[in-house]
Design goal:
about 30% strand; about 30% helix; eight-stranded mixed β-sheet
Length: about 180
């Protein structure tokens, strides 16, 4: 966990906590880091239900307290994006060549979301679908996504393979497996 104390605009001292989860390529080299807001140095999860606040804090920290270079070095940063922050284009302050915007799995693919993702792509950002589930109504988002993250703990491998190929083909998409544990 990366932490740094900072002085807020009201001169109160606050601490910033960001979890950094490596994302490996198939050769087990670090491809990127997923940046995750943490409410304290001892929690390995986000204690609040307000994802907008968490992502805003993470963006503020990566631009104003620490730099992306401090957080991820030469690698890219995966940043979770909520529906509100997607529609408000809050992500636009982040450098498009350094971040991958992860659309959270609880975001429904309605017309506003699809239009916002089209704009995000036109502006040169990389889009990932987080913990993707195989539903036909997600097809428009899948067509826009560069990276599809799949939770390997909740989906058996044969089901994953069959559904990916039958329903989507995944032509041109990079697949990222989540929650994979290497045997010791």
């Amino acid at each position: 966990m990366i932490t740094r104390s900072s002085t807020a605009t009201d001169t109160n001292t606050s601490s910033v906590f960001i979890g950094r989860q490596p994302i490996f390529d198939r050769e087990q080299n670090v491809y990127a880091y997923e940046l995750l807001y943490r409410s304290s140095a001892t929690r390995n999860s986000f204690a609040h239900t307000d994802g907008d606040q968490a992502t805003n804090s993470l963006i503020d920290t990566s631009l104003n307290v620490l730099s992306l270079d401090d957080l991820v070095g030469k690698h890219r940063a995966f940043v979770n994006i909520t529906r509100k922050l997607l529609l408000d284009q809050t992500y636009s302050v982040l450098p498009k060549d350094r971040v991958v915007l992860e659309l959270l799995e609880n975001i429904e693919p309605d017309a506003d979301v699809i239009e916002s993702c089209q704009l995000l792509k036109r502006n040169g950002y990389t889009l990932a679908l987080d913990d993707f589930e195989f539903r036909q109504d997600y097809r428009p988002l899948l067509d826009l996504a560069d990276i599809v993250k799949i939770d390997f703990l909740t989906c058996p491998i044969q089901q994953r393979k069959a559904e990916m190929m039958q329903n989507y083909g995944f032509g041109g998409h990079r697949i990222a497996g989540g929650k994979i544990r290497r045997p010791r």
